[in-house]
Amino acid sequence: MRASLLQIAVDEAESVDSRRRRVASLVRRQSGSDLVVLPELWTTGAFAYESFAAEAEPLEGPTYELMAKAASDAGVWLHAGSIPERVASGALYNTSLVFSPSGELAASYRKIHRFGFDKGEAVLMGAGSELATVALPETTIGLATCYDLRFPELFRGLVDAGAQTFVVSAGWPERRRSHWTLLARARAVEDQAFVLACGTGGGHAGVPQAGHSVVVDPWGEVLAEAGSGEEVLAVEFDASKVGVVREQFPALKDRLMGVAAPRR
After folding, report:
1. pTM summary value
2. Which listed residue (55, 85, 111, 198) is catalytic?
3. Which domain holds residue 240?
4. Which of 56, 57, 175, 177 has CB 3.0 to 4.6 Å from 61, enough for a Cys bridge?
5. Residue 263 forms part of a structural domain
């Protein structure tokens, strides 16, 4: 299976419309890939909080239209990263879109864990409540977004839903880059799954981005890693390795669910 992670740099001097068109063109150039992945909130920048409301769009808005067409033109499965989605009530969500090679919407995922504690995304956007998986011909992918990477229970839920490969779309800051790689490898090892984690380059609203998109195998080995700037990280991997690892080292079968809390 061939995956291409498009580590987009968000330049404030580039308009959102221009970036949409540029990224759509870049997606079309990945026609030899099976799966193409974009970062989180690449239209605005994950830390450009003041732009969320101004650039929010309905699910089937301009980004949806351009990405659906690009997926169809390239004949690829496309995780189109996430957009600031505005629903009819006016509420905003950090919503990921996945398109089939025919350009049909295969899944959408509203980010469950919002970053910022008492500011930024955490107060500007609503929280999603549903996990999302998509069955591709060679693997079932489970969707996660940036800060979700810190919550292992979400990934266990994706495993229970049949996920064998985790696709993480992110806008991760440079100052916590060591956590990014560590957590991607941890999620791969503990869930015996591939992790395809796609971040952004450049900076968002003055916050330097980590870049370093990474592909990790079920043993926690890094198969490919990008640098810090805009880059296409292409990697081929054997998706069937997940089943082999889970059979040879069946740790997931030893999970103890519903263990009673210790008496005090």
Report:
1. 0.96
2. 111
3. 2-251
4. 57
5. no
